[in-house]
Design goal:
Rossmann fold, two-stranded antiparallel ribbon, globular, 6 helices, 6-stranded mixed beta sheet
Length: 165
């Protein structure tokens, strides 16, 4: 099984999740940050794993563009989607607002892997928005963090599926 994990991140949380997942997958797994390079031949992969951070309800813009440009090829692949954000309550709404309906219908796994607000890395605008969204004055309340057990469980399911294919 040849896997591609393509992701978009703003401050590094999604990169950490993508690399953790890659380390747990069997078979060849390439990891690509769409911010650094969006030119890749997806046709050489058996499975495409798409990961993105979510800011103000939106996934990474370059990743969204990549999906639109490669949708026909993605529909012919096993696809998996994971998102990193602080609030899982609106998970399905985020998926519906950011991914083509055809892709969601064809995706074998969709999961939330937690998130992290790294205030020290944030630009002023993002830091201000995070504070407003937390409805607190002063520091932003801590987020649950990356759900490493969810990433491990996802890897196990994908590895088992590969063996059964």
């Amino acid at each position: 099984m040849r896997n591609l994990i393509i992701y978009g991140t703003k401050y590094g949380c999604t990169a950490e999740c993508a690399n953790k997942l890659a380390a747990s997958l069997e078979g060849q797994t390439d990891v690509l940050n769409v911010e650094q390079n969006a030119t890749i031949d997806v046709s050489v992969y058996d499975r495409i794993i798409i990961g993105s951070s979510v800011y103000m309800g939106q996934i990474n813009k370059k990743l969204k563009k990549f999906i639109e440009e490669h949708l026909a090829k993605l529909l012919g692949k096993e696809t998996v989607i994971f998102i990193c954000c602080s609030l899982p309550d609106n998970f399905n709404d985020v998926l519906a607002a950011n991914f083509p309906e055809q892709l969601l219908a064809n995706t074998m796994e969709k999961t939330f892997v937690g998130g992290r607000l790294d205030i020290d890395k944030m630009k002023l605008v993002d830091r201000t928005i995070a504070k407003l969204m937390s409805k607190q004055k002063g520091d932003v309340a801590p987020v649950a963090g990356i759900l490493y057990d969810v990433i491990e469980d996802l890897a196990k399911r994908l590895n088992e599926h590969s063996k059964g294919a």
